[in-house]
Design goal:
There is one protein chain. It is built from no helices and 15 strands. It has about 210 residues and is mainly β. It has a 4-stranded antiparallel beta sheet, with no helix packed on it. The protein has a 4-stranded antiparallel beta sheet with strand order 5-6-7-8, with no helix packed on it.
Length: about 210
């Protein structure tokens, strides 16, 4: 391994907790989902690299209407690109719902966060897009700030996240099932999640529409 180097010289606020993967855009740009947790305020943004990860630049923080997104705010975005330069993020929030923002310039600027129809219990989410454009999202479909992190479910969308339908329950028993990760695989999707903070579970599936 090479000697570690600082990605963001002069940055005093840091990034994290960052749990979700960067994506490679159609034009070769690496786009990384980022967030900042400071006391009383969580904020989301993205980091872009056009040189294979050697240097990075941050977008502005995504605007939040604090009358809609109550509590600490939003963290841990997960990203997808629907067509060249058109990028979308879903985010974990403290307001009881997954929120969404969209970019038309490859993640340089973002629309204000808005609520989706998907409940969120202030727990991590992740999604992936397959070669046919279908989205698969792993989440705890439970509303309420810090509500129970069970069940853990998979939902899919064929219309770029406008509507979602359930496809599989990964876990339904009592306990915490959280921090999912999802990637597109040669035959469907694959992912991981934590089970009761004791073990990591791996799954793969050919998820049908």
């Amino acid at each position: 391994w090479s000697t570690p180097d600082v990605l963001f010289p002069g940055d005093t606020e840091g990034r994290g907790a960052a749990k979700n993967k960067p994506i490679l855009l159609a034009d070769g740009t690496l786009l990384a989902p980022s967030s900042r947790e400071t006391e009383g305020l969580w904020r989301v943004f993205t980091d872009r690299s056009t040189d294979g990860g050697l240097t990075w630049s941050a977008s502005d923080e995504v605007t939040m209407d604090r009358t809609l997104i109550t509590g600490a705010g939003a963290i841990q975005p997960t990203l997808s690109e629907s067509s060249p330069g058109h990028v979308h993020m879903l985010v974990r929030t403290s307001c009881g719902w997954i929120c969404r923002s969209d970019s038309e310039d490859g993640g340089r600027t973002w629309s204000p966060l808005r609520k989706t129809s998907l409940p969120n219990n202030n727990s991590g989410i992740d999604l992936a897009r397959d070669s046919q454009g279908r989205l698969l999202l792993a989440l705890n479909p439970v509303g309420g700030n810090w509500a129970a992190r069970t069940p853990l479910s998979l939902v899919a969308s064929e219309d770029n996240g406008s509507t979602w339908h359930p496809v599989h329950e990964l876990e339904t028993e009592t306990g915490e099932f959280s921090y999912p990760a999802v990637v597109a695989a040669p035959q469907g999707f694959a992912g991981t999640y934590t089970a009761k903070r004791e073990t990591i579970i791996f799954w793969e599936a050919d998820v049908q529409a």
